[in-house]
Amino acid sequence: MFEARLVQGALWKKVIDAIKDLLTEAKWDCNSTGITLQAMDSSHVSLVSLNLRAEGFDTFRCDRNLSMGINLSSMSKILKCAGNDDVITIKTADDADTVTFVFESQNNEKVSDYEIRLLDLDTEHLGIPETEYSCVVKLPAGEFQRICRDLSQIGESVVITCTKEGVQFSASGDLGTGNIKLAQNASADKEEEAVVIEMNQAVTLTFALRYLNFFTKATPISNQVTLSMSQDVPLVVEYKVADMGYLRYYLAPKMEDQDD
């Protein structure tokens, strides 16, 4: 038996909204410690890694390890039937071929349940190596979303340059160039407005804005986003999911000799 109950049901909706445009279907691995998901996007350019710890749920029960293959657009459609204040419970029996979503209104006057069929997905678990990053930038999630959106008007790629002074995002295209520079301000009045840079060595890397704009769909989940970069390894864009885990996106840098 697997059952996970989340009083903050809106958080679950935000997590699915953040990944459904990158992943069509994915395997949710559940065990006694929580739920994890790891999948490449359909074009095999980026990787999504989600980790939700059992103690972050209001009740969590997983009698034995379980993998649920779920179509994310189906799940997203069903979650649209849940109110933002609803309590969401996800449950399935050990050998079931469906998973059930139960939505309860706060006053318990309305309870609805929906079942979707589980898919048999054959996906290999990708080992993500532990990496020491040359540069880790923490900045307001809304600011990062705005930067990616604004620079998309100018070019298809963004060059991220990280130095001790700050982090700069640059794009160039037919209509010209754009540069946005954020200075480090660890002492911002509100923690979520701080820009904090931890750096061992300066880094300059180029990434496809199309994917970064997909990643920033996770902005509603967290006030802050962390970008971890090193030369020639994938960028990690991480959003904390309340006090229960994280959602990470990985994106390989573009090589300089590519024209696209």
Describe the structure.
- By secondary structure, the protein is mainly β.
- Helices cover 15% and strands 44% of the residues.
- It is built from 4 helices and 18 strands.
- Strands 6-2-3-4-18-17-16-10-14 form a 9-stranded antiparallel sheet. Strands 5-1-7-8-9 form a 5-stranded antiparallel sheet. Strands 13-12-11-15 form a 4-stranded antiparallel sheet.
- It is elongated and about 55 Å long.
- The mean pLDDT is 93.
Helix vs. strand class: mainly beta
Describe the global form: elongated
In whole angstroms, the N-to-C terminal distance is 49 Å
Question: How would you write the strand order of the largest sheet?
Answer: 6-2-3-4-18-17-16-10-14
Q: On the 0-100 scale, what is the average pLDDT?
A: 93
Order of helices and strands: EHEEEEEHEEEEHEEEEEHEEE
Given as residue ranges, the uncertain stretches (5+ residues, pLDDT < 50) are: none
Counting DSSP H or I runs of 4 or more residues, the number of helices is 4
* Beta-strand share of residues: 35-45%
DSSP summary, beta strand count:
18
- Rg value: 20 Å
Helix content: 10-25%
Report the biggest beta sheet as strand number plus sense, adding barrel if it closes: 9 strands, antiparallel
Keywords:
single chain; 260 residues; mainly beta; 9-stranded antiparallel β-sheet; 5-stranded antiparallel β-sheet; 18 strands; elongated; Pr_cel_nuc_antig_CS; DNA_clamp_sf; nucleus; DNA-binding
Helices and strands in order:
Blueprint: E1 2-6, H1 9-19, E2 25-31, E3 34-40, E4 46-53, E5 59-62, E6 66-71, H2 72-79, E7 87-92, E8 98-104, E9 111-117, E10 135-140, H3 141-152, E11 157-162, E12 166-173, E13 176-183, E14 196-199, E15 203-208, H4 209-215, E16 224-229, E17 235-241, E18 245-251
Antiparallel strand pairs: 1-5, 1-7, 2-3, 2-6, 3-4, 4-18, 7-8, 8-9, 10-14, 10-16, 11-12, 11-15, 12-13, 16-17, 17-18
Helix pairs in contact: 1-2, 3-4
